[in-house]
Amino acid sequence: MPSKLRARCAPARPPQSRPPATPASWLRSLLALTSLALAAACSVPARADTAPAGRYRATAKVSSLEQAAAQGAQVFANDTFGTRQTWVPPNAFNSHLMTCAACHTDGGRPEGSTPAGQPIPSLIGAAARYPKFKGKKREVYTLERQIVHCVRAGILGKPPAYDSPEMVDLVAYLTQLSRGATMGTQFSR
Ligand code: HEC
Predict the structure, then answer these.
(1) Rounded mean pLDDT of 63-87?
(2) Could you tell me the maximum CA-CA distance found in the chain, to the nearest angstrom?
(3) Which of 12, 25, 165, 178 lies in disulfide reach of 58, CB 3.0 to 4.6 Å?
(4) Which one, of 102, 94, 107, lies nearest residue 155 by Cα?
(5) Please, what are the domains in the chain?
């Protein structure tokens, strides 16, 4: 049911049209540039959820599973999957391109909801509950298939291929969020 699911995956805020340049907007741009310059001057590494959104390319070659999961966290926070859909983060001056993190805040840990009141689940333990039976579709979704669904219906972007580094690393990241969770609780027998 794509239309219903699309509604469930509605953006946190409706897309905004670019307002005309006013003295206030110039001042905001200047402030934004100043904070960027300040950020560049600091040697503290940027947190994954504060890096600028764009096309994040994960590398296939990594030196550990943890490194893959760290790349997955970057994809989660910053990859826009080629979307043109924007949203306005709380307390931000401008709109950002859509990412996983637009809906799944704080790396996907807390529960949330869209303005339409649709629940957004916490992703802690989620990976342990896949494959999952989707009753309305009468299909079994793997974790990868769910990620593809969220990219299509939530981000309105081009989903990563199942064997791409971006997909592999997202799965590694989501599985790390489920570290220690009991597997298979979705089965009744
Ligand atoms: C526009 C909002 C939105 C965006 C963007 C979004 N999601 Fe979701 N996500 C949801 C909602 C709502 C659900 C719950 C309904 C569903 O399963 O589709 C969900 C469910 C999930 C689930 C299943 C959780 C469970 O317990 O079954 C996973 C995993 C997930 N998202 C990962 C991602 C990833 C990875 C991205 C980025 C590629 C992403 N999401 C982008 C809204 C979004």
Answers:
(1) 96
(2) 65
(3) 165
(4) 102
(5) 47-177 (1.10.760.10)
Contact in structure between 11 and 98 (CB atoms under 8 Å): yes
Residue 97 Cβ contacting ligand 1 at under 6 Å: no
Centroid of ligand 1 to alpha carbon of 9 (angstroms) = 8
Which residues lie across from 141 on neighbouring strands? Answer: 132
98 CB within 6 A, ligand 1: yes
Burial class (CB in 10 A: 0-12, 13-18, 19+), 25: middle
Identify the three-state secondary structure at position 112: strand
118-134 pLDDT, tens digit per residue, is 899 999 999 999 999 99
Q: Are 128 and 119 in contact (CB under 8 A)?
A: no
* 139-178 pLDDT per residue, tens: 999 999 999 999 999 999 999 999 999 999 999 999 999 9
Q: Coil, strand or helix: which one is 132?
A: strand
> φ and ψ at 79, to 5 degrees?
-75, 130
Q: What is the pLDDT of residue 183?
A: 97
Specify the length of the chain in residues: 189
